[in-house]
Automatic annotation (TrEMBL):
GO terms for cellular component: cytoplasm; lamellipodium; nucleus; plasma membrane. Keywords: Cell membrane, Cell projection, Coiled coil, Cytoplasm, DNA-binding, Membrane, Nucleus, Phosphoprotein. This is Switch-associated protein 70. The gene is Swap70. It comes from Leptocoma aspasia. The keyword Lipoprotein does not apply. InterPro entries: EF-hand_SWAP70_N, PH-like_dom_sf, PH_domain, PH_SWAP70. Gene3D superfamilies: Pleckstrin-homology domain (PH domain)/Phosphotyrosine-binding domain (PTB).
Length: 579
């Protein structure tokens, strides 16, 4: 009943949408009750539309009434063709194309009914390209023409580019235009449409003329046989106006071939529960086709399966639904993959940006490092060059200082030699007797000055040795001090020359005194001893001696303790000799 209800709703939908809104509900309901053999309830109809008369646009709508008061009461005891014709009559005048078609209105009606059978179970009703191809193939095969697959593929591509399928009126225009039936006359097309209508709508599995043997009179009469899923009906002619009987089929029926007899050929026997029928086909091919068709029908009855065209339609629909579900699943997966890919792209873009930023930072750091390295190298090179220059300068200064020190030491050695010569000269003064005190004082004064100068020179010498070991920062100051000391040394040399001149004068005086002393030595011995006793007083005091000095009544002695002992021994020897 559910399938029957869906088939009825498709035809009713066409009629309902074609009527004017102000009278669609009541007019359509009355006609449906008439053709479907359902008792008409005008009270319920008026109650349902009590507030307004707008049909499907009312507050309650038309579908609840249609389901409750009409469709639920349908028993199946109605003429489907008459029902479809009533709905067709209500919608065809408004929607059928006014342009001339190659098919008649009756053929258009049959195409309209076939459309309702093959269309999708969703509204507004359309027929998908797969079902259009199936219908056109059936019509082409019924006409005995070849199927033009390439032509339909081009049409299918153009159709799929803008829409999902065709409406019933577009399908009628397509078939009526003759686009896929070129070269065929109107009668051939009409016969093909009628054959497809009989198979798909009237469930006619096979039909044709055959001879049937009577049960009572046993005579053979030509009849028009129509095979349906559960019955075989036979008529006087193919116009189906004079029906002669029915053969009820079930799972217990069987069919078998018979040999030729009584002048009849191509015989087969159909056995049912209550009767057996002998039938003669026109030829062996027709005989075999009928036997196979009846056997297939009985097999379907045993299996409880629907007719082949309905089963094929259901399989095509299930396949489309499966493909649609797979396509939706694929689209969902593609969207998920696309979303995941976009996320990955975003992540990769973020990682790429991070890598670029890291690379930029690394490049900047490398640039800074190289710049710092170059700066350090330049700085180190400058410092190294400066250090080399400072070292070279220091070496030059040290060499200069060494040369100056050598010259200074040479001068000191010359002074020491001069001091030795002076000492030798002073040795000659030991015998001076007269004016000893005056000469001694003069000598003491000169020696004190010379000792002070010598001590000052030695101090400058020690300071210059310390100056050599000083740092570079002190070298310039030391150089200045050295210059000053050299100047002081020159002054001292000049003073020393002055002293030498004075010494020469003193020697000359000493020579004069010595002569006088020699003259006086002859006069008195005692004076000689006295002079000998005090000889050390007129001796020049040597500078720089490290031995301890003797102290006399007149101050520090001019000779050492060893020299004093030697002189004492000399005096004692002289004294012993004189005695």
């Amino acid at each position: 009943m559910v399938g029957l209800k869906e088939e009825l709703l498709k035809s009713i939908w066409h009629a309902f949408t074609a009527l004017d809104l102000d009278r669609s509900g009541k007019v359509l309901s009355h006609n449906l009750c008439t053709v479907l053999n359902v008792p008409h309830d005008p009270v319920a109809l008026e109650e349902h539309f009590r507030d307004d008369d707008e049909g499907p646009v009312s507050n309650q709508g038309y579908m609840p009434y249609l389901n409750k008061f009409i469709l639920e009461k349908v028993q199946g005891n109605f003429d489907k063709v008459e029902f479809n014709r009533m709905c067709w009559t209500l919608c065809a005048k408004k929607n059928l194309s006014k342009s001339p078609l190659l098919i008649s209105d009756e053929d258009a009606f049959k195409v309209w009914v076939i459309f309702n059978f093959l269309s999708e179970d969703k509204y507004p009703l359309i027929i998908v390209p797969e079902e259009i191809e199936y219908l056109l193939k059936k019509i082409t095969e019924a006409m005995g023409a070849g199927w033009q697959q390439e032509q339909f593929d081009h049409y299918k591509i153009a159709l799929n580019s803008g829409r999902e399928g065709l409406s019933v009126w577009e399908l009628i225009d397509l078939i009526g235009s003759g686009q896929f039936s070129k070269g065929m006359d109107r009668q051939t097309v009409s016969m093909a449409i009628n054959e497809v209508f009989n198979e798909l709508i009237l469930d006619v599995l096979k039909q044709g003329y055959m001879l049937k043997k009577g049960h009572k009179r046993k005579n053979w009469m030509e009849r028009w046989f129509v095979l349906k899923p559960n019955i075989i009906s036979y008529y006087v002619s193919e116009d189906l106006k004079d029906k002669k009987g029915d053969i009820i089929l079930d799972g217990n029926c069987c069919v078998e071939a018979l040999p030729d007899k009584d002048g009849k050929k191509c015989l087969f026997l159909l056995k049912c529960l209550d009767k057996t029928f002998e039938i003669s086909a026109s030829d062996k091919k027709k005989k075999q086709e009928w036997i196979q068709a009846i056997q297939s029908t009985v097999s379907l009855l045993r299996a409880g399966s629907p007719p082949p065209h309905k089963e094929a339609r259901q399989k095509r629909k299930e396949l489309r639904q499966k493909l649609l579900a797979e396509q939706e699943e694929l689209e969902r997966q593609m969207k998920e993959l696309q979303a995941a890919n976009e996320n990955k792209q975003k992540e990769l873009e973020a990682v790429r940006k991070q890598l670029e930023a890291a690379a930029a930072r690394a490049a900047e750091e490398e640039k800074k490092r190289l710049q710092t390295q170059v700066e350090l190298q330049d700085r180190f090179s400058l410092e190294l060059e400066r250090e080399k220059m400072v070292r070279q300068k220091m070496e030059e200064q040290v060499a200069q200082k060494s040369s100056e020190l050598e010259q200074y030491l040479q001068r000191v050695r010359e002074l020491e030699e001069m001091y030795k010569q002076l000492q030798e000269a002073l040795e000659d003064e030991k015998q001076a007797r007269q004016d000893e005190e005056t000469v001694r004082k003069l000598q003491a004064r000169l020696l004190e000055e010379e000792t002070a100068k010598r001590a000052e020179l030695e101090k400058w010498h020690l300071q210059q040795q310390q100056t050599i070991q000083m740092t570079e920062a002190e070298k310039q100051e030391l150089e200045n001090q050295r210059m000053m000391k050299e100047q002081a040394l020159q002054v001292a040399m000049q003073q020393l020359k002055q002293l030498e001149l004075e010494r020469k004068e003193a020697l000359e005086q000493y020579e004069e005194v010595k002569k006088k002393l020699e003259m006086a030595a002859n006069n008195t011995k005692s004076w000689k001893d006295k002079v000998a006793h005090h000889e050390g007083l007129i001796r020049l005091i040597e500078p720089g001696s490290k031995n301890p000095h003797l102290i006399t009544n007149w101050g520090p002695a001019a000779f050492t303790e060893a020299e004093l002992e030697e002189r004492q021994r000399s005096w004692k020897g002289k004294k012993a000799t004189s005695e």
